[in-house]
Amino acid sequence: MAFPKPFYRWRPHPWHGLEVGPKPPYLVHAFIEITPFDLVKYEVDKITGYLYLDRPQRSSSQHPALYGFIPRTYCGARVRDLSPKAKDGDGDPLDVCVISERPVTRGEVVVTAKVIGGLQMVDHSEADDKIIAVVDGDHVWGAIDDISDLPPVLVERLQHYFLTYKMIPGHESNVSIESVYSAEHARAVINASIEDYRDEYE
Questions:
Q1: Which among 96, 99, 82 is positioned nearest to 141, based on CA atoms?
Q2: Each residue's pLDDT tens digit, 189-202
């Protein structure tokens, strides 16, 4: 019996082996590492591609959306250049938060997501942008084309989470969110990260 094409004899690496998406930078794939129901931080190991327990969450806050990364992206010089207060890219794939009306309770799933905006985050002087997207075809959020159409409280929750999830009492925070940006700028960041990936790995 012949295998269907394409067929992966082994599981592809989620960062390097999956496609960016069906229509980047408008529709992208998001590999989900963390759901709003997780109380620990999971992260894909860059070498093996397996999901590792990175750390228990220090605070009681929970992520307000699905969280992961866009395959075959890299935050390097081009992404840094779009973030005026950053001195470098963070050297990781581009992070993405995906809003879903229906609960998604498990990670290590691939979601097709429509890009609607992003948060220009700087972490220890490194560009660490968070792309905001909605599940493609979502019956509640799927018609939204720009972050300005989201209820402001959802954007506030995302900002609050990222400003506080690394906080340690008695220590100064090294994380800032410089702006909330539109779908148009988010698409520019995604294109920059795709080019950074090609420079780094192809």
A1: 99
A2: 999 999 999 999 99
25 preceded by cis ω (within 30°)? yes
SS3 content of the chain, % helix, strand, coil (to 5): 20, 30, 50
Question: What six digits make up the tokens of 62?
Answer: 């929970």
* pLDDT for the residue 193: 98
Domain annotation covers residue 155: yes
Q: Kindly report the CATH number assigned to the domain that includes residue 83.
A: 3.90.80.10
Number of domains in the chain: 1
Q: Which of 44, 122, 115 is nearest to 82 (CA)?
A: 122
State the Cα–Cα distance between residues 88 and 124, nearest whole angstrom. 10
Instruction: Label residue 166 by pLDDT band (50, 70, 90).
Output: confident
* Assigned token pair, 28: 């992208």
Judge contact between 175 and 123, C-beta under 8 A.
yes
Alpha-carbon distances of 47 from 13, 32, 98, 175, 182, rounded to whole Å? 9, 17, 25, 26, 33
Q: Which two tokens stand for residue 182?
A: 């539109």
Amino acid occupying residue 11: R
> Which tens digit of pLDDT belongs to each residue from 170-183?
677 789 999 999 99
